[in-house]
Amino acid sequence: MRIQNRKICLFVDNFSGHEILYEPSNIQLEWFEPNLTPYVQPLDAGIIRCFKAHYRRAFCIRALDRDDAGEQEIYKISLLEAMLMAKEAWDSIEPTTIKHCWDHTAIQRPPIMLRIPATSHNNSAVQTPPTTDPITWQIIRDFATTEMTLPDAEDALKRHLGENYHDDEWLPVLQTVMDADEDGNSASALAVIDKIKPTKPPGPSHHAVTAQGQLLESEISDAMIKLKKRNRVHGELLSMDELLKPVEEDEVGESPEIFEGGDEEIVAEVCREHARAEEHVAEAQSESDDEQPASTALTRAEMMDLCERLETSCLDVDAECALDLKRSLCRFRAHLRKVEMASARQITLNSLWGL
Fold first, then answer.
1. Residues of the chain scoring pLDDT < 70
2. CA–CA separation, 85 vs 216, rounded Å?
3. Which of 18, 178, 264, 354 is the most exposed place for a label (fewest CB within 10 A)?
4. For the chain, first and last CA: distance in Å?
């Protein structure tokens, strides 16, 4: 970028891990104020919620299928299957959902429009503007703490609010900030801003409502009700917010400070743990050498044969999923054959005659 003389502006949230220990030459860093995540980050505006809804829906349907199959531990799942379900959930997010969440944050231009209608106007006193939009109030804070002039602040508000900008709402606010900052004390102006700024704590209600998300949440609710009727869910059913944003995700927990020596102590502790694990594995192997069960893994050829046999028989069963199963088995057999062909080696005369 330096060679091409390119410059970019990078917006960064106030996560502690985003600390940058050097001054970039061609990158201008703009730091978000605290608690802006649900407002300005499209992923947190509904995309992640939609991803979780896809996964929860698949997990609930899987639990119902396992219950129908007579399984006792219907919620038990392997790490591999969970990872595959998570990938499937992410791939299922529609582009329209992503676009809607970007539009919901209103961080791209032009134009950026407020979704909250303006209220009645009153010139007699400083009115609280009808918005909790953090970008708007960041402009006001910049006006109070930087060299931004009054016309510059008005222009910035007009560009951001578009047709929702009204002089009789914002000029009294700007004038109040100017009056508080007459003595050059920006802290007084910031205190006034905090006093007149509408407050609304961020939370799940700030996510974008999408058609895909609504359908998924409805299907999750239906599945949870079925599990409850089968006595597979005990106690009260969780709300959708509790399912898709459990409180455990926000709990960091206390980590004991046992690595006062820094990186060297961490590396030493990892080496000790690794050595203990190797000793444990060696002891377990020596104790079970004589009791190793025969491997039950099938070869690729055996799996292809089994798939072919199931394909020819599954349609004999009167089941709605029989055709889907046949198609899935055929695709899986084709994949196995492709892998088999890719790993096959050409037979030479020497190997044929055992030379």
1. 38, 108-134, 182-185, 198-207, 247-263, 281, 284-296, 351-352, 354-355
2. 15
3. 354
4. 61
Read off the tokens for 12.
């960064």
Backbone angles phi, psi at 9, to 5 degrees: -110, 125
Q: What is the DSSP letter of 239?
A: P
Query: Which one-letter amino acid corresponds to residue 291?
Result: E
pTM: 0.52
Sign of torsion, CA 160 163 166 171? Answer: positive
* Residues 139, 153 contacting (CB under 8 angstroms): yes
Token digits of residue 160: 């951001």
| Residues 235, 239, 240: CA angle, nearest 5 degrees | 135
**CB of 124 closer than 8 Å to CB of 168:** no
8 Å CB contact between 77 and 83: no
- Residue 273, CB half-sphere, CA atoms under 13 Å: how many? 6
Residues in the chain: 355
**Cα distance between residue 84 and residue 64, in whole Å:** 19
